[in-house]
Amino acid sequence: ILGSIEAGGTKFVCAVGNENYEVIDKAVFPTIDPATTIGNCIAFFKKYPEMQAMSVASFGPIDIDKHSA
Question: Bridge-partner residues for 54, per DSSP?
Fold first, then answer.
């Protein structure tokens, strides 16, 4: 099982699929505040503990440094 997030300014699309590029499940959430939006993503992916990897696509910068301004 592989996971994917498309992070946009108006919506987030979360999906899981298999090695044959077949979508098993997906969900679309509005982009609200960070805590709510990421919380929705976490809740979706918790249904798939066997997930092996995840990709993220974003139409803006992604900064993983917790101390970054």
Answer: 3
